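Dear colleagues,

As part of the handover before I leave the project, I'm documenting each prediction I ran so the next person doesn't have to rerun anything. This entry is a single chain, and its sequence is reproduced below.
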Amino acid sequence: MKRTSTRATALLLALMALASPTPFGDSSPLAWAGSETVSLEQLRAQANSAMSKGAEEFLDFLPSLRADRELWPLWCAIGAQAARSLQRPDARALLDQAISAGFSQPRMVESAFSKDADWSQLVERMEANVPPPALRVLDWPEPPVSLPLHLDKLSRDRESVFRRKLPSARASAWETARAILSWTQSRWQHVGNHSAKTHDALAILERAENGERFRCVEYADVLAAALNAHGIPARTIGLRDKTYYFGLGLGHVVAEAWIDDLGKWVLLDGQNGAYWQDAGGPLSAHDLARRYDSGNSDAAFMQADGTRRTDARQWWSYFAWFDLHEAEWAPEGKGFVPYFQGEALTTKRLVKDPGKLYPDLGTFWVGLGEVEAKPALRLEALHPYAKGFVIDGRPLQGNPVLWPFPDTPGKHEVAVAVQTPYGTLAKRRVVVEVAAPTPHR
């Protein structure tokens, strides 16, 4: 009996690897002519065995594989390859059968049939068998790239003790933030030359309750920790005068918080119990630094209760530069001086683009997951205190969450919003497409 070459056998085995029984996992019984009832898994194992013996053995076994309706187009194409390797006249007829049955992978048979005069037409026929994708994600939000977010908060056990000393949360994040801002200012009388030598907000507060007084730094530490304890993401931020590298009294430390109902970062000054705003609402450190750099000083300095302060000019010069735990920012084109009040500065990163320091905590990453062996969208909020999501008005608890694709064919546009302790944030659009089921050949 004529045997196929070693090279042809290796090729057939490589093709067979794509049709291994393991990925399909179907062990339901089926019957085929001249044999006892066998499972689909057994049938595919027998095909593997026949293929390992050579092309002729596989071709002898090929008629039995018609019982494998799912993989028959692939088996038939492998048979066409085997027949061509033996120079049998029925090779092309087998390939035509495979294509008519739905075979769609030109690459698998290219080495054997690419020299046929009508190869390009064969390719077109095979590619026409590829159905449209069952699912597609057409549009989704993508958060801008930002540096890791550092929040100034206490450990969980100390935070639970600290929270009992705080004013209660209000209905909105902004109302809560202003209540905590006013409370922080009232904890002690400011003194500019006494350091707590710790950033632990609970320790600072307990020492203040015993009569100690501290600097702006400690106000910021307590304020940021109090905001985080009430589910408002907050960090401390250092502000500097334009000549911060020479002299004294050239810096001021405040807090900055993401306010859910405003959808932005807002600077909060614990020492003064105040914030800055313009006609568009409260402002961040970067908003103010940008105004300072452009010579625009029309922002209002507001007390927590909403009354306007009269000493804005005294504090305005601190918005020439600012720094966070993770980075130092400087206005574009002005360089950076690595000293503060005559002492060396250290930082992990020098940043030109302030956008990297201001993540949009109202948005989320969209990825892919699996629910009951079917694809699903994976949604992960950037907000550190997210409780879940609202998808077209339906809540889904947790972060991250998996959202199964709709079953109904067509294009589906859904409104997705992050849910936090203070409510539902701005909606973002996600668009998916579900194809109609493809009839089985």
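The mean pLDDT is 90. The two ends are 36 Å apart (CA to CA).

All the best with the project,
I.
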